[in-house]
Write a structure and sequence with these properties.
The chain is α/β, with parallel strands linked by helices. It has 12 helices and 11 strands. It has 2 domains: about 120 residues, Rossmann fold (3-Layer(aba) Sandwich), CATH 3.40.50.12080; about 120 residues. Helix 6 crosses helix 9. It is globular.
């Protein structure tokens, strides 16, 4: 028996799903989905929530296990997942259709928020994988790797606010397209505690979203802080001038925290520049994908 199967014991049928009168809830999506499940499955919860692998780890061999769970699901909480994801029937609507009890669907957004980290972006590069040390890209480093005019190390106040506004507009647009629960207001309210990285929201944001899930299905709020920091693996630097530009109290952080270890931003940049040299085209693709943010920071 592998450690992975033990970790997802309920999913693989190695442990029985808790049986009581509470509705059975499944949360489908990425690492944010699992953190949401943790909050929904706390002490005194009005639902039963079963841990399942993140969507990007599911395989064809996992589908029978997913179907077995879906046979008893009352509520499907899902991020928007495209039909045929990774050539498997794991899209939101596909998973919903596989559930014989026609469960209630609650869509939650994939949260990406660049306000605290205006230079940080995500670049998917099939065939190249992820850069070393941290799986995030910095547009300042991308411009250097692409041989373009360098960006300033610190954004102007107007640039920082422009990236925040762009991030809010993009997330608001995704919420409207997918009919998901809103989170932009939660991110704004959380201020300097909103995110650890562009795609790892803080506890306050996740807790607020979990409460909205319960409200959406007409159940009482029983969400409490789990007593630990969720999505805690990586914390990106936060520039004090960015906090000042956004009018947010709090102290900045110069270094990364990776698995609890401090890693300087300079070390990350050097490693990434070497990686871009080994993977030509990635830097240019990243700059094209995030052209609006680059333009805001260059203004």
């Amino acid at each position: 028996m592998t450690g992975r199967r033990q970790h997802y014991a309920h999913f693989y049928g190695l442990a029985p799903v808790p049986a009581d009168e509470r509705p059975l809830l499944l949360v489908h999506g990425n690492c944010q989905a699992e953190s949401l499940r943790v909050l929904l499955d706390g002490a005194g919860s009005p639902v039963r929530a079963v841990r399942i692998p993140p969507v990007h780890e599911l395989t064809a061999e996992d589908l029978p296990h997913l179907d077995r769970l879906l046979a008893g699901v009352d509520v499907l909480v899902s991020q928007p997942v495209t039909a045929g994801y990774r050539d498997l029937p794991l899209g939101t609507q596909e998973v919903l259709a596989r559930a014989p009890r026609s469960p209630r669907l609650v869509v939650v957004p994939v949260i990406r928020w660049a306000a605290l980290h205006p230079f940080q972006v995500i670049v998917r590069s099939p065939g190249a994988g992820e850069p070393p040390l941290v799986p995030y890209h910095d547009v300042r480093t991308l411009t250097l790797a692409a041989g373009r005019s360098p960006l300033a190390e610190v954004p102007t106040p107007a640039g920082a606010r422009a990236v925040r506004d762009l991030s809010a507009q993009e997330l608001q647009g995704r919420q409207e397209r997918h009919g998901s629960l809103p989170v932009v207001d939660l991110l704004l309210a959380a201020g300097a505690e909103a995110t650890h990285t562009v795609n790892h929201p803080g506890n306050a944001v996740l807790t607020g979203l979990a409460r909205r899930v319960l409200a959406a299905i007409g159940l009482p709020d029983a969400v409490a802080d789990p007593g630990r920091t969720l999505l805690d693996s990586i914390h990106a630097p936060v520039l004090e001038p960015v906090l000042d530009a956004l009018g947010l109290p709090g102290a900045g952080r110069a270094d990364w925290l990776v698995g609890g270890r401090s890693v300087s931003d300079a070390e990350v940049r050097e490693a990434h520049l070497r990686w871009y040299a080994e993977h030509p085209g990635v830097a240019e693709a990243g700059l094209t994908r995030h052209a609006q943010a680059v333009a805001a920071l260059a203004a």
